[in-house]
Each structure stands twice: as structure tokens, then as C-alpha cells.
Fold each of these.
Amino acid sequence: MSNWPHQSKVDEFYGDPRDDDGGSSAQWEKENIVYVNPPWKLVTAWDGRSVTKGVRVHRKCAESLKKVFDSIWTAAGKNEHKIREWGMHLYGGGHSFRLMKGGTRLSMHSYGCAVDFDPARNGFGDTTPNFENYPDVLDAFEKEGWTWGGNWKKPDGMHWQAARIK
């Protein structure tokens, strides 16, 4: 899908993930969050533990993210070593109910329309994110219309989202 909503319209497109008290809605999560497994081994970026269930995303993003993963896997020659070189085995997060860094609005992660990979080499504010060196990764997300945080005024090179900012 290439017609992802603008960030200001995510409530209408993905639904409101808040409960009546403004916290995380367990019912919304149950109805909307699914797991997508890449065709390679995935570990958590923070402690190297195996990610067995997959990447947590909104069901509306699942098919697109699977296409991204398949494209990256093909570009890597279905080679785990290449995936590790690129940092795509290091899962930094998907759905997580929280505010934007330094903000008052919900993060796109709250909607399950954002994913992070290899945060150590693509940190928030780093003006030279490592993923710039791997156009196959960038192209796979771009073909599906995902926005890369590495292009932002304050870069967030680990981050992709299925929501536009322009």
C-alpha cells in the first residue's frame, strides 16, 4: 500500500488505541495488532534474545511489511550473514503504546504502524544513520510507501512508519 494516512489522520485510519481513560486499550490491541515474521532470524536489539512471535504491527500494515521483508530477503540473496551486516536482524520495536519522543502526541508505534531496526547504529538524532549504506533496505520500505525517519530534520534512522508526515 502506498497511500498511508498522514500522521494527523491515523486515528481515523488505524482506529484510536486509547481506552476511556487515555491509556492503552486492550480491546483495540486485541482487534488490531498482529505478528509478522521475517524470513530470517530476528533478535531484540537490546539483549539479543530471539524474537519468536515476530514484529508487532497493525493488521492494516501486516501484508505490506511482509512484502518489505520478502524484498529485503531477496535482495540479501536469502543470506542471514548479509541480513546481519545490514542490521535487519536487530529488532528495536513495533507496536508499543507511548508518546512521541519529547512530545505530547501518541507515537506512531502506539498505532502499530511503526517499526525500528538496529537502533545502536541508527540512533535518534544521528545524522549519519547506518541504513544509508544499504539502499536495498531503504528501497524495500520505500516501494511500500513507508516513511523513513532517517530523512527527517532530526533523523531517526532506525524508524519506518506507515504514516506520512507531508
Note: The beta strands are 33-36, 43-44, 55-58, 90-93, 114-117, 147-148, 159-161.
Amino acid sequence: MDLMRRLRVSRSDAHTSAASDEMGLDAFGAEDGSPAAAPPASGARATFAQSHIVIGVLALLVLIEAVPTGLWIRNRLRPPAPPVTAAALPPAAAIPLASCSEPAGPSPAAPGTATPAAATSGVARGAGSVPARSDAAVAPPVPAVDKSMLAGTVTVSAPVPMQILSRGRLVGTTEAESFMLPVGTHELEFVNQTVGFRARRTVTVQAGKTSAVKLDAPSGTVSINAVPWAEVWMDGRRIGETPIGNLSAPIGARELVFRHPDFGERKASIMVTLKEPARISMDLRKK
């Protein structure tokens, strides 16, 4: 505003000085008494041009000041933008997976470069060999093999617990109900170190079938005595009155019962083996 006031004052001063100059020039006449000549028109044109320049500068200054002011007013009057919430965003499930993955097709090769397939084909043709197939051969799925078609089951009946060996390797025991062996013919060895029993049997195993092996118990020697005397039962069978010597009995654990009319009944067990004769003596007088 001060600048505009100063420009107006300078403009009025210019007009005033111009008028005074004209009046001063009119006051003086020519020496011969004739009126003075009119001032040239070039001074008026210069004053008019200066006033237009001043007006243009003022208009430019007004525009320079008006643009930032208009922008500030527009920003103040514009309504605030609503905040972005999580609800405005699309859920993760709504985003298609295809948009996140890379295109499945092969990427275009750069101009002037050969693809691996083309390079391989060119080498193969140049060497005179058959070009390799681009697709890898997929092996057919192998069907599951039923183990029952490759092995069979063996059951063993033995008088005593025994270990079962095949070519020196333990494959089972007689305490188990059964055990499995591969299909074919096998020579099995049955061993019990405690009673000194060892036997060999040959068994043929068929796929998915059960082969049975029975071992007969060999006999050992037993000697039995009682004081004063007694009747003796072995495994529920009466074997006679004491003394009893060199009695043949199957190997294994045997149950004995001693009976006397005055001393009553006593029970005992004995292990019959093939290593040596088994001996037992019972004193019925002791409680």
C-alpha cells in the first residue's frame, strides 16, 4: 500500500511540474512581443509511456502477491481428507494369487541371444546326433509291493524254550507264537544251552503261508530218593517208590510229588538235561 501511495504522489508531482513548466514558458514571450511557441509533443509522450510502465509494474506486483494468497485460501477452505482405515483396505484373501506370482510362460529372450534349447539343438545338429527331447521322461509310479508275497510264517513246537538260528543269525525264539522268513528253503538250528539240546530242521517257506516245525523232546536220566521212603509222581504220573535210579525222562522242568502215610506229602521240581543225570533227595521228616 505504501508503494502504491508513493507511486501516486510521484505521478501527481510529475503532472504538477509539467503544468508549471508550461505556465513558465507561457509567461515569457518572444523578444518581439509575440507569444511563445507551444512545447514539443515528445515530452507528453514520454510522460505517458512512463505512467504505463509504472501501471504494468504495479499490476505484476499485485499478481505476484495474489497467487500465494489464493493458494492459501483454497487450502484452508478445502475439506480434510478422511483417514485411511484398515477396513478400507481389501482383505488378503480377496487378492488373487495369480497377481502375486510370476507369469508361468517363458520370458522373451533379448534380441541377438539364442535360447538354451536353440543352442542345444544347433550343437546337436552340427555334431550329427539326434536332438535331445525338451521334455524329461517321467518314470511310471512303482506299485507298492505286498510283503506277504515275499515272505511266509513259521511256527515251532518245542519241549523247552529254544533260540532259532539261520546261517548263524538269530531269526526268532520258540517263545514267540511265530516268526517270518523269506520265501524259499531254510536250514534252521534250534539251540538251548541250559539243557544241552541242539537240533537242525529244514523248512520250506511259501509266500503268505505258515510252515510248522515240531521238535520232539529227547530223554535224560533222573535219580530220585526219599527218607524214610515215599511214593513218587512225575507230572501227575506215578513212577514208583523210592529209591528210583536211572529213570528216563524228557528234558525240561519236571514236577515231582512225594507221599508218605505218616509224613504226608511234599512237592519239588527237577530240571532234566542232556548234560548229566538229574538227582534229587527228599527228607520227609523235616518240616
Note: Helices lie at 2-27, 42-77, 97-100, 116-127.
Amino acid sequence: MNETTRTDELLEMARKHLIRFHPVEKEGPIIARGLGSKVWDVEGNEYIDFVSGQISATIGHNHPRIVEAMVRAGEKMIHSSKWLLQEESILFAERMARHLPESLTKMIFKNSGTEANEAALHMAKMHTGNWEVVSIDRSFFGNTAQSRSNTFVLGHRGLGKGNAYGPQMPGSYALPIPYCFRCPLRLKFPSCEFACAELGFELFDSQSNGYPAAVIAEPLMSAAGIIEPPPGYFELLRKKADERGMKVIYDESQTAFGRIGTMFAFENHVAPDFLVLAKAMGGGAALSCMATSAEIEQDAFEKGWTGGSTHSNDPLVCAMGMAVLEVVQEERLPEQALEKGSFLVEQFRSMADRFEQIGDIRGRGLLLGIEFVTDRDTRAPADELGKKFSQACLERGLIISIIRMPGLNSVCRMAPPLTIGQEEMDRALAIMEDALVEVTGARPGSAG
């Protein structure tokens, strides 16, 4: 007779009391604690966390500097009235401003990327006096009303009659995704001359009611399968927005604070009118930020903008954010992300020589993706292989992320802590190799 484990007990409680938020049953493991690049489940099993929790534990789980800042700030003050200024948020904002251009030195701190996106969209609408918003197909901005409306992903907008969320916000438009590996227009870059953007704005113009407000985009589209638009795309996006009097919003929830090798992704492109930061910013704490210019903020203030909320600028999380920022700077983590990312990409390319199911390797720094295919010539996605690979890695002690969107289960996403060590990367690579041998049926060290 099998003994009931702690995992069994907790799973039973979870089935009774937790609301499920994804159409996939969770059967374990149940995580109990974390430190650095590792986490442990309630049975004591160890895992290398190759996705930094929810891509948030950027400097590692329970980094001593974050814990110290949390304890110190918690002894002083956890929460303050949003109607009163408080020290930690002012100091954090001033430090953040040193890393941003003059056009992005006014900011508000919120709880999540979704909230910060809503704040940016609301302020852009108020500033322009318009209400139409353009985003890119397969982008993900959150699950609140406006953010969900600009998230063009099947499942997040509903799946049809009987399981939909109802009407979306009016004035929400999508551009074709600049997904060069699977171009939706069946073209090739650079000969395509950014046809996806050109066509997208032509379609927007034909449908617009004449109230263009904003364009919102991710510099590197993580939830879409680690899609980075080709060079020059964001310069064109900026031009198209300016021609229509639209403000540009970058959602850097997953790309900022050094993850892709620079402090912010927009450093590789052009600065936006609004910048959204989250996830990495709190090192695991619920902290986000919306930054904009003094001119836009002044205009919104005069018009009575009401974007504050109960926990805006709370002292505890702002102190933790300051600790993250200091560690990123002092330990030169953007440079480490580039070096470690280059090493991983080199190893993935070596794997691709042995496993023909690896169709594409992409990303930058430590935000990387591998796309599995059934055939390299047709590039047909290998959804089942992706799911089996993810499970095989988990069983061996490695947590990776398969993009859980229709048609994207073939994309493996990796975003380990920027502080991950060489030994942990080597172990993760060995686990991936072993898992690929199992799920593809290939012989170790052979071509696929």
C-alpha cells in the first residue's frame, strides 16, 4: 500500500481550494523554497530554475541583498497612504532616473506589469485626447480590461461562444507579428521591407475612427515565443506613430534590468514615450513601474489623471527594488547576461547539429528560445515534442517554460537568473541533452 506523501496532501487541498487559471491540470511538484538558481519541492527534490520563477527572480531566489532590504524596510514601514509622499519611493525614483533618458524621468510604482500597462495606456489616452490603441499580434500585456484588449492571443480573449470574456475595449487593433521564422505574409526579410508593419498600419487607417492614441509593444516578445523584430522595425514603428500623433509605449516587463545584455531593451532602438517595467524590477516582489516625460505627466496632472491605487509607491517593495538595481549595477549583470547567453546559444547550436528537431534558436542575453519542428524544410511546429521535452526536463530536475499558447507549444523559453553559475548551466545543458535523447529517440551524440 502506497503511503500518502506531503505532495499528495497539498494537491488534495489545492484541488479543493485554489482557482485554476490555466486549462492545464497541475500535478506537482509543489515548491517549498528557493535560493539562487535553485528551488526545492516539499519532498526535498532539487531543481535548477531556468525561468527565474515567473521570469522575476532576476538576481536569484532570495538574494541576500533583497532579503536584507525587505527586513530593514519592513521594520520601518510596509505600507503608506498613497495620498502622502514617502521616502523609499522618492529615493528609488531618483536612482532609477539616473539610468533613463530625460524623456522618462517621471514615474509611478505599481504592483504588476498589467497595472503599469493600464497606467500608461490611460495616461496616453488622456494626453492625446484619443482612445484607439495599436499592438502587435501575439503580444501579451496582461489580463485587465485594456491590457487584455490589446493582447491578441487565442485564449486570453476567449475561445468562442460559451467561454469568452465578452466585448473587448473599443479601439483595439493588431499589427501582423514580425515573426521572421514564420512570416505571416510568407515573405523574407529584408526584401519584405517591413511589410507586416506597413500593411498593419494601412489596415489600422482603414478601420480607425480618427482617434489614434498609442502604440504598445514589447521590444522582445517573450510570451509570443521569444520573437525579436528585425533591425529597423522599431524605428519604423516610431515613425508611423508620430505621423498619426500616437504615443509609443514599450512593455519591458521581461527585458529590462540587464536580462538581454543591456539595462533596457530600448537602448537598442529608440526611446518610447512611456516605459513599463515589472517582474525583474522587484527581484520576485510584486513591483512595477510606469515612466514617462515631465511634459506628459504635467499635462495629465492638469487634466486630473487618477492612476494611483492603494499600493502605489509602497515603501517595502520600493526598498527591494532599490536592492535589485544596486546588485545589477555592482555585479555588472547585463555584461554577465551577454556572456552567459552567448555560451548557452553556442551549446544549443551544437545540440542542433545532433537533433534535427531543433528548428530555430533565438533571443538575446538570458532570454532565449528554442523552437522545435517536425521537419526543418517545412518548419512544421512540433507541439507534442515541446510538451514532452518540458516534462522530461522537469522529471530530471530542470524547470523550463514551454509557451502555452495554441500553436506555440513547440517553443521552449529560457530565462535563468542572471547570477546563475557555470556548474548549474552545465548541469542544465546535460539534462536537456538527455531529455532530447528520450523524446526524439535519437542516440546520444548522434545526428537527429
Note: The chain has a mean pLDDT of 93.
